[in-house]
TrEMBL record:
Coiled-coil ranges from the UniProt annotation: none
Keyword Transmembrane helix carried by entry: yes
This protein's record includes keyword Transmembrane helix: yes
Native source organism of the sequence: Tunturiibacter empetritectus
First and last residue of the signal peptide: none
Membrane-spanning segments: 67-85, 97-118, 130-146, 153-170, 231-253, 265-289, 295-316, 323-344, 364-389
Keywords: Membrane, Transmembrane, Transmembrane helix
Domain of life according to the entry: Bacteria
Protein name: DUF5009 domain-containing protein
């Protein structure tokens, strides 16, 4: 492994790559199906915790799994100052950089739509997943790298406040609102918000009204009525705010080099988490990941700063690069990891089922078979990524 660690280019920020690797590992780790296993151990606190943190919360709050998308988005922002510096050194013109950025945005959106359409009758034109949300806001984030930090922070504030105000002014659903007609059954009503916070209820909000118009402009098997999970196209607007937080982190990393701006990261984390919680508990704006509320942008952004601070401390301060190496292998090829998780799972798992005896997959018991099979699948993913790493094959958009 020592020789492999030496392959890492010196210009890479290993802490950032390791953080990105953890994010992708959490996403790929869905193959272990903790929720399914937890049903076999209904009295186990451990499996209840593992299951909770491998699924998205129903509406308010967060689990570890809910941090995957904001972390990935945040890290896109972190990479922007590095990308801009690299392109400046190559002598690229502003026009060329903008053209490349627009093309990258298009590819991200197109790839997201492609992956969601794999098992569909026709192209599934929706825009709520990680790649399309990043793609919709990426060009705007890139353009903001050219302005002074104070204007970046101004843009961040305007985006969040303007988005909050638009939702606050949109009529809230009344007590007689037909939630069942928008995919919210009676047994889900325990998650509904009341009072002013009801502006952010599932499928009865501004974003739902926009999608009811916008998504029906595209060809589809039947008219779009609602998203089962409550996810929205317009979430790309506050998601842009998450990218801008990452942009600030990346700017601090470059400006403070060779020092690590741990104090700035921790200060930002405390302020953002406190602000998000304040908005939530005062009823001004709830923390809801599925619709990316401004309070969620603040709270999850603070958590991202905490993760980045932790990885920076482990890798850059304590110099535990080898400890982070397994994650770096994944993080340096995040697009490849993303594609594997979406395209390879059925093939790899079916190959193991066909070629290994059931006794092997059930070595730890039938209830734990999903974990055993999932770990084997993850091992295959990692070995492929390690081979790509050693041969310097990196997928880029």
């Amino acid at each position: 492994m020592g020789a492999s660690v030496d392959i890492i280019p010196p210009q890479r920020n290993v802490a950032v790559d390791a953080y990105r690797g953890l994010v992708m590992l959490l996403m790929m780790g869905e193959v272990m199906q903790f929720e399914t296993v937890a049903h076999s151990f209904p009295n186990s606190t451990l499996w209840r915790i593992l299951s909770f943190n491998q699924t998205h919360v129903q509406w308010v709050g967060m689990g570890l799994h809910d941090m995957i998308q904001p972390s990935f988005t945040f890290l896109v922002g972190v990479a922007l100052p590095y990308s801009l510096r690299s392109r400046h050194r190559k002598g690229e013109t502003f026009q060329r950089m903008v053209g490349h950025t627009i093309w990258r945005s298009f590819l991200l959106v197109a790839l997201g739509i492609f992956l969601r359409s794999i098992h569909s009758e026709m192209t599934n034109f929706t825009f709520e997943d990680t790649l399309t949300q990043i793609g919709l806001g990426y060009t705007f984030a890139f353009l903001l790298t050219f302005v002074r930090p104070r204007w970046q922070w101004t843009a961040f504030g305007v985006i969040l406040f303007g988005y909050w105000l638009a939702w606050a002014l949109y009529p809230a659903p009344g007590p007689a609102f037909p939630y069942a007609s928008v995919g919210v059954p009676d047994d889900w009503h325990q998650h509904l918000l009341h009072g002013f916070a009801s502006h952010w209820n599932k499928n009865s909000n501004l974003g739902q009204a926009f999608d009811l118009w916008f998504l029906n402009l595209f060809p589809r098997p039947s008219r779009f009525l609602f998203n089962d999970g409550g996810y929205l196209t317009l979430s790309f607007i506050p998601t842009l705010g998450t990218m801008l937080l990452g942009l600030a982190a990346g700017r601090w990393l470059i400006a403070d080099k060779p020092n690590v701006p741990l104090r700035k990261f921790l200060t930002a984390a405390v302020i953002l988490i406190a602000a998000g919680l304040l908005l939530h508990f005062t009823g001004i704006c709830p923390i809801v990941k599925r619709i990316w509320t401004p309070a969620w942008t603040l709270f999850s952004g603070g958590m991202c700063f905490l993760f980045l601070a932790a990885f920076s401390w482990i890798v850059d301060v304590k110099k535990h690069t080898r400890l982070a190496f397994p994650l770096v292998v994944i993080g340096m090829n995040s697009i490849a990891a993303y594609l594997m998780a979406h395209l390879f799972e059925d093939f790899v798992e079916s190959s193991f089922r066909i070629n290994l005896r059931m006794a092997t997959l059930n070595i730890f018991g039938t209830a734990l078979e999903p974990v055993t099979l999932g770990l084997l699948t993850l091992a295959v993913y990692w070995l492929i990524l390690h081979w790509m790493f050693r041969n310097k094959i990196f997928l880029r958009i």
